[in-house]
Structure formats: C-alpha cells, structure tokens
Amino acid sequence: MKKVAVIGANGQAGARIVDEALRQGYAVTAVVRNKEYKNDKAGVIYKDIMSLEKADLAGFDAVITAFGTWSDETRHLHTDGLLHVADLLSGTDTRLLVVGGAGSLYVDDALSVRLIDTPEFPAEYKPTANAMAQGLDELRKRDDVKWTYLSPAAEFEVDMPRTGEYIVAGEKFTLNEKGESVISYADYAIAMVDEIKNEKFIQKRFSILGK
C-alpha cells in the first residue's frame, strides 16, 4: 500500500484529495495546522508548511501540497512553502505533486502568453495567480525532485458532482467539446491521485478539465 501525505488537507482541494486517496486504497496522512482537524481514516501531522522537517515526510511515496493562501501577507508562501517542501524531498524517491492554478496555462502554440496575461483574466485573482505561477517557474528549475504540477480548468467548482471522468491536457489552456473549461474539485482529486499510480508527468506540468 502506497503512503501519501496531503499538505493542506482541510482545504477544499485537500479534503477531496484525502477522500479520493483513501477511496483508491492509499494510506493517507493529513498535514494541517488546525488542531481541531480529525480524520479517523487518516493519520495527522499538525504542522505549518514552513515548520515541516525532513523526518516528517520520510517514508512517503508521494507528498501532495494543496496549500493555499490569499492574503497579501502570506501569498509569498505559494513559492516559499513549495520550495521548502521541495528541499525536504530533494534527492529522494518521494514524489511531490502540487495543486496548481489555471492562470499559468498558455493560450498560444508558442507557449509564450499565459492566461493570466490576457485582458480577460479577472484582476482580483491576479495576485494569487501570479504567486502560484512563480512557484511553478521555480519548480521548473529543479531536477533534484520528482515534482508534478497539476493545473485545473479555469472554472474550478466546489459544488459540481464527482463524475469520475476528466480530460487530460498539457501546458495549453484547453476547452472541451462544449466550449467550456470547467472541472469539479472531486474530479480534480481523481486526476491527482491517478497520477500517483500512472507516473506520466514526472517533472512536468499538466492540466485537466471536465468532459
């Protein structure tokens, strides 16, 4: 049985990834700051992302970071926290999988213009999208970590149902046959956990969307 740690396990994405990993038969450990968090089906580490130590993450087959923050004071942790975890896993066989953003997806074949750079991208989301994109940029420089970055569709929906289906795309912003870019958190979680088993995107970014 593979062992998986989920950082930010009590967030919207993290909680669904924990549920999906358990559903698929993984041994799961939730990494959270909130001492009130309880999960009878998973182990728990109560630590802030920057307080994690190498020993905390030893022995896991995969570490998934679903860490998220939106305030001006903490937004830097999208990069700093990610790199801290990458440093802890450096030189090991443990995979690092990252819940990413859609803003860094490219809208042109030359992969030179990102969704976040287009006039249509909502201004209120740009600070966080830029912070997440910076984290991806830093990961791309690393060959000492088995990282994978998974970007959701542009519309990342909490309340949409779990369908069990999704479309795999690459670095480009992609629409489905209905002309939509949308995915439920539950289906996103399936794709994330499937990648642990499939190992198709090591040291790469990919994206998914609903059918």
UniProtKB/TrEMBL annotation:
Transmembrane feature ranges: none
Matches recorded under Pfam families: NAD_binding_10
Database matches in InterPro entries: NAD(P)-bd_dom, NAD(P)-bd_dom_sf, Polyketide_Oxido-like
Domain NAD(P)-binding residue range list: 8-198
SUPFAM superfamilies: NAD(P)-binding Rossmann-fold domains
GO molecular function: oxidoreductase activity, acting on the CH-NH group of donors, NAD or NADP as acceptor
PANTHER family: FLAVIN REDUCTASE (NADPH)
Protein name: NAD(P)H-binding protein
Originating species: Campylobacter californiensis
